[in-house]
Amino acid sequence: MAGQQFLDALDQHPFFDVIALGASARSAGKTYREAITQSSGQVAWYVDASRALDRYGDMPVVDAAQLKLDGLDIIFSAVETDAARALEASYATRVPVVSTASAYRYDSDVPILIPAVNGDHSDLVKAQEKRGWRGFVVPIPNCTTTGLAIALAPLHRVFGVERAIVTSLQAVSGAGRSSGVIGLDVVDNVIPYIPGEEEKVARETCKLLGQLANDTIEPADLVVSATCTRVAVLDGHTESVNVALRTPATVEEVVDAMQAFGKDINPGTHPSAPADWLRVLDDPFRPQPRVDRDADGGMATTVGRIRLDPAMGPNGIRFVLVSHNTKMGAAKGAILVAEDLKTRGLLA
Amino acid sequence: MAGQQFLDALDQHPFFDVIALGASARSAGKTYREAITQSSGQVAWYVDASRALDRYGDMPVVDAAQLKLDGLDIIFSAVETDAARALEASYATRVPVVSTASAYRYDSDVPILIPAVNGDHSDLVKAQEKRGWRGFVVPIPNCTTTGLAIALAPLHRVFGVERAIVTSLQAVSGAGRSSGVIGLDVVDNVIPYIPGEEEKVARETCKLLGQLANDTIEPADLVVSATCTRVAVLDGHTESVNVALRTPATVEEVVDAMQAFGKDINPGTHPSAPADWLRVLDDPFRPQPRVDRDADGGMATTVGRIRLDPAMGPNGIRFVLVSHNTKMGAAKGAILVAEDLKTRGLLA
Amino acid sequence: MAGQQFLDALDQHPFFDVIALGASARSAGKTYREAITQSSGQVAWYVDASRALDRYGDMPVVDAAQLKLDGLDIIFSAVETDAARALEASYATRVPVVSTASAYRYDSDVPILIPAVNGDHSDLVKAQEKRGWRGFVVPIPNCTTTGLAIALAPLHRVFGVERAIVTSLQAVSGAGRSSGVIGLDVVDNVIPYIPGEEEKVARETCKLLGQLANDTIEPADLVVSATCTRVAVLDGHTESVNVALRTPATVEEVVDAMQAFGKDINPGTHPSAPADWLRVLDDPFRPQPRVDRDADGGMATTVGRIRLDPAMGPNGIRFVLVSHNTKMGAAKGAILVAEDLKTRGLLA
Amino acid sequence: MAGQQFLDALDQHPFFDVIALGASARSAGKTYREAITQSSGQVAWYVDASRALDRYGDMPVVDAAQLKLDGLDIIFSAVETDAARALEASYATRVPVVSTASAYRYDSDVPILIPAVNGDHSDLVKAQEKRGWRGFVVPIPNCTTTGLAIALAPLHRVFGVERAIVTSLQAVSGAGRSSGVIGLDVVDNVIPYIPGEEEKVARETCKLLGQLANDTIEPADLVVSATCTRVAVLDGHTESVNVALRTPATVEEVVDAMQAFGKDINPGTHPSAPADWLRVLDDPFRPQPRVDRDADGGMATTVGRIRLDPAMGPNGIRFVLVSHNTKMGAAKGAILVAEDLKTRGLLA
Question: What ipTM is given for this predicted complex?
Fold first, then answer.
């Protein structure tokens, strides 16, 4: 699915052209359309619009392990984590890689990037030269981290964040087609656990909000605790967030900080960037995943229900956010990172 | 619906017989079956089993405002809050009332009761004699409070609870048939707000965990903050709970405290009581509302995912619970209160 | 909801400007935004885009029964059927009315219109002059009839249709907000009955496919039997259709007839018309309501799974269709009718 | 899942004891509980009650291909169709096999059995001696065939059935855990195709309603056409059925025929049999899968909305049925067949 979302997002992109498609050896030699056609005859194309399928359907698919790197300026990688470590390393010897996989996220010379949050961390890619690479690997965060880090970033800059608690209500699309059992399980149900997710959210949020110094990132001094659940929503993660700030803030000040956030990374400079990184709504019944997930092409994070939170201490606040897990939290988010790398002169 | 659940729970009850049914003036003079038959011909009976409908379907319905109080030992009230204040007062002049409505919950001479949590608060009903009543009113808590208070009660007794944060993922049945719009809204969606709910949870939890003294209840010195959401679940509220204890506790100690809770209020003494007030599960994928809501006839609260929570401070813990909102959280919970009042000699 | 869909569809319409908004007396005197704001503070705007709300939110709402008819070229009516009979008659004394209500659908001097199916029936509106009206009333069909009539029209023209059986799997949005109970009922469920729907489908399909002669419409000599069910889909009715044709047809001939249908009513002449009235898909897993409902702005009917049907006799065929019940089947369908009336010179 | 349902249904069965559990070679040597524990630690037990898991969890699992046949009186097989052909043959050399797989359903010497429909077909198992088998294989039908065949059987006996058209709205549990993608696809959606299902329904219904003669089954002279769809229901297939009878019947006569059906196969003789094979309901809003699937332990077929159907011809009738696909349509249905074989003296 992530591959399809990349194609959908790239087919009319002003910076990037798709010139090669890699997949497992099993698909090599087929056209893209053949590769996604099931034995039942169903063409497993899950993106709403078929424009990208029409454009790339006849393109040949090559074995990802045999991908010719000549002429590639960037590689977008959406492989499973297990395969990502070796595959992305082989690519990075010569070509920059932006990845949705978690394989390299926690390496000390690898930044996890969201341009408006920590675009300056991209300098760290130069440290990867020590691996003998001419390219580099930049992962985007876990899709649940993404919305949280974007919402916390302005709070951390303006007021300091001391502690954050999040309960996520995650969409099934985040589970991937390969663990489709989730779909069946969430009808009339909630699954209160997503293996590995909570640790990722805690660790990645601190790294994203941290400081780059001496070729490494000092994580933010911030305690994050996450409880990640799966609900019967197709797309769009909802997160209920409770925060202890380091300095006092009124609701209005929180709103102002959020609304001012990210204005320099916008569609004028970055084609995939949202006009508003943080849309703040007054209506207490918002944000809702079905209603808000597609705001700004699925790239905005929508925040509502901002209130003080006495249970988080004297500087406590709480809010609810919705972030599109398969757009900002996946392929389009990775493309936005690539746009930022290009803007910074880090791509050829 | 609450009325139907009362009938379903009472039709084979060892203590109570149903001898009169009250409803709005519009239904008066009809049989019960006629009263719940819609203009389309649909018999709006929503309980799975039809046994109670078979038994009470031909019973006449009287205008609740004209209900004859002679011969009644107890009245179960499930009216809308607006109507409850006057109606329950008129009943309480002569008969004890156990109510699912919130009208009286916050009055100083009124206890909110969950037998295993604060059965001793029932003594407060005697203070209602000052109103000139021979009966009294005892409300049960809001259905979201119920599971939370039961889970916090043993922690508060053993370790003390300083602060609690809850994000609820509530079932649509809690919204009642009258605001059925919720059903439509929650398909592929989450509604992040339930008007009035969060304040009720905060206030009622403190009152339930408080101390009875001098004909009033001193609320527990505890800060509760709730974010209440609605999800596409039919029955069973899921709650993600973060707690700051006053004294340190290991996960094992928390489990032990929970498992030991409520053993003296059991099916042997109270026919509607669960064998286990708190079922604690190891499986990290539990509790799930569809799987766990019906445990012990919908009267058990199921807890899982008990972990330490550094973001709540040095004594922080967190867990997830599931509680059946229309059983323990509604009619059957009210009947259990009545059973406890009878055991204490407070019913005629 | 229908009113909102009209506003959404009209706010950038090349032919029509909204100059007055009517509603119940209860809303009169409020702005449109105020009128749809609930006591909880929620602005009950259910259309995805808020553009129309931004444009019309401050427009005053008048009592529909007191609507000033001066200067109105057309009135779109989306009132409940009970109110429609009197209200639409009072409008039609002076102004043409296009209505989503069923009040006038079965009157002998009233056509039910779908432009590509029976646009020539619009001449019948002249017969309404005998009622002493200077305007007229034209209803659109029931939303379940719409897709069926569009799919059957080319078959009836080319091969003749003798009998048709349909089982509908209808979306909850068709149930309207006022009967929101449906939403709750369809989670993990199917409701096998929609009061009045099956008779409407049978009767309206015959009238739509009939012949106009002598100021009345002779219904098509066609037996239709419908079984209408409600499923957990937000928008888009799915219909499984079995047809006995009067003359033999291969699957290819059926496809050809469908694909050739309606080409003269297209976006070039009618801004709301679909480019393809009938999209025919090969993929056996299509049409699907979530995937296909929005084709051509929700105005196309998507057909798939066309097969012979021996159980319908020697000329039997069967197929599945998806039609958007709140777009082609409601407000946008009514606007398309108005566009056609204008093209035919029947509007001032 | 089917294996789990067998264990759940067998653990307190009066006739059968579970003495061996076979599975793939991958699970051999593990306990049953270990075999169903996922790498994440989740115990993949999907049956509501855990009683059978408690009882059989510690039982060793053997390689199904190495299963020792000594001492086995019957084998219940729920393997995938591809594996079933060889595996069931190897079992049948010595032991009777009742199977949920389709591998043998269409062989001329193999009956497909539903006791009340065609229990007399079980004599055909003797013809399998010609294969050199001392045991035999008896499959149950596809879960969608089951409800249809039960509803048609009394109509066929009393009035004759000439043609039948069915549109099924099938639950996701029928898709099995292995094709879990369905769960994700059916949220806010309908999938209008289930590969292979429609052919099975047509062919199996005719075989079930056929006549045994000369060691083979002459299929009923009946044309069946099925359109099989998948909807967001967890359990319970809903089927909209249109029938052309050979002789006239009133609705009352159809009801009478259905209600009289199957009375000789009842819980008194067959522990798993329903008291009512066909429950006929008057309420037009029934049957509903969530409400009716569990009737008689999931073994009853519930029918409603019986009406004449002019579009099926002069003797047309139509109705809606609900049948539990994973109870009567799977493990419990297979056990009921075994009970019937035992009653007939066909088991050792």
Answer: 0.95
